Amino acid sequence: YMDFESVKQLSLQHSKPAGLLLQYGTAGFRTKAEYLDHVMFRMGLLAVLRSKQQKSTIGVMVTASHNPEEDNGVKLVDPMGEMLAPAWEEYATSLANAEELEISSVLADIVQKESVDVNQNAFVAIGRDTRHSSEKLAHAVVDGVTSLGAQYQDYGLVTTPQLHYIVCCRNTEGQYGTATVEGYYKKLSKAFSDLIKQNASSGDSHRSVRVDGANGIGAMKLKEMEHYLQTGLFLHVLNDGACGKLNHLCGADYVKVQQKPPPGLDMKPMERCCSFDGDADRIVYFYNDGAGHFHLLDGDKIATLISTFLKELLLKVDLNLKMAVVQTAYANGSSTRYLEETMKVPVYCTKTGVKHLHHKAQEFDIGVYFEANGHGTVLFSKSAEETIRQLAKHETDAKKREAAEMFENTINLINQTVGDAISDMLLIEAILLLKNLTVQQWDAIYTDLPNRQLKVKVADRRVIETTDAERRAVTPPGLQEKIDDLVKQYKLSRAFVRPSGTEDVVRVYAEADTQENADALAHAVSLAVY
Ligand code: 16G
Ligand code: ZN
């Protein structure tokens, strides 16, 4: 039995706009900030139930990532720092859409279906990004949590991956690290400096990187972290929110979609630059080659660099661990080919959305996953991690032990809970230093096939259903055949369509031997969608 009296009282202060229907999508709820107050309150409620059911801390992150400043959103973080379990996404949707008088019965229903022990203690960890609306919305989450008599800690301004890290730390009794933002800085800084200390090459140790912080939380947190990073890495943080607007003409999404640098970021030739997104869970690199050409190093290039490095380490420690790379349909064909044919690493394709990639990557000893848009990380199985840590401690062969130590430092530097722009950046910087690679050499590992993404407005995007990890359309009838015919007309070509999970559009992707052909194919496919 649960007392919903104070829920009823408080929910009146967080009432739902009439007629509003929202869905817990690929990245939680997301819409204009002014429509979200009731959703936040109710997600506070849901987090309490999930916490009681899991007997663990649950996270609630208030952010709309790369979307405009006027938007906001919320996502729940499960005990080990993963995304909320799919069955609960449905509860989230029902709860968000319930009428005032239905809230208690929706809660009671969840309690019953999920056998929630209502007497269990609950704890919710709350974080938010730098949006103007976020503070007030986080308070609405707190109201939801306290109306069910549960405890919480408001971690205030944090990146999404920092909150995931904190949740995981709290639920593993500190084994993963100390459950504070400072604990995060210390863990990553130590791993980074230990890792680069192992540099044997004569490569320059004074390095710098230009970071576009998307005028968001990532810039703020990176600046805080600089204080802990006492190494030769110099960070020029731009778009740090001092004057620019969040995600406006900057950030990872802008750079990836526009395939150009943020205006005002003046790149010296060959200088390494990177962009975070608005909540710092995505990163892309880029540079200017001196002849004025812009080069983008996206999630696929990052996955390739990281898996090359890990594969070399595996050879050095002489362990037979199973490594795989997980991508989505958006992965550039050249990257998949390079990974499979040259590196001989198995590659798997999942549906778009971090939770799908993360889930697949958990099947391997080492699962490297990245979306082309720059969201990704590496997962290590418990036993692989343990084996490597033991080797780093006890191996008698000095060379092998050093390699194992390098491996262990690498594991410590990676945020395994979710893609993390700060952690990914430090890992990439360390790898480039250790392998003595310039950004251009990294870029040259393989050459991207020219590609084009388009979005098409249709009356109802749900008429398109896909299969084979979104690479083929099964409905409407005839569409896939048309796409197949079009693809046949170009060399090295590939194309697919899928309904967006975050916008009311159909997305079209095409790649081919030349940019003109990729553009023409994408255009032709988008006409076939109507
Ligand atoms: C969300 C996903 C992202 C995915 C994107 C696709 C998370 C945390 N974020 O932002 O991974 O690439 O949706 O959007 O899962 P789309 O369905 O509109 O193409
Ligand atoms: Zn994001």
Describe this structure in words.
Residues 179-284, 298-436 form the Phosphoacetylglucosamine mutase AMG1 domain. One of its GO terms (molecular function) is magnesium ion binding. It catalyses: N-acetyl-alpha-D-glucosamine 1-phosphate = N-acetyl-D-glucosamine 6-phosphate. The chain has 530 residues and is an alpha/beta fold. The chain is 41% helix and 19% strand. It is built from 18 helices and 19 strands. The protein has a five-stranded mixed beta sheet, with helices on both faces. The longest helix has 19 residues, at 299-317. It is globular. The relative contact order is 0.09. The mean pLDDT is 95. Bound molecules: 2-acetamido-2-deoxy-6-O-phosphono-alpha-D-glucopyranose and zinc ion. Residues 65-66, 277, 279, 281-282 line the site of zinc ion.
Integer average pLDDT: 95
What share of the residues does DSSP label as strand, in percent?
Answer: 15-25%
- Apparent shape: globular
How many individual helices?
18
Strand numbers in spatial order across the main sheet: 1-3-2-4-5
Radius of gyration: 23 Å
Instruction: State the end-to-end CA separation.
Output: 52 Å
Bound molecules: 2-acetamido-2-deoxy-6-O-phosphono-alpha-D-glucopyranose, zinc ion
Class inferred from helices and paired strands: alpha/beta
How helix-rich are the residues, as a percent range?
A: 40-55%
Which ranges are low-confidence, i.e. pLDDT below 50, for 5 or more consecutive residues?
none
Number of strands: 19
Main sheet specs: 5 strands, mixed
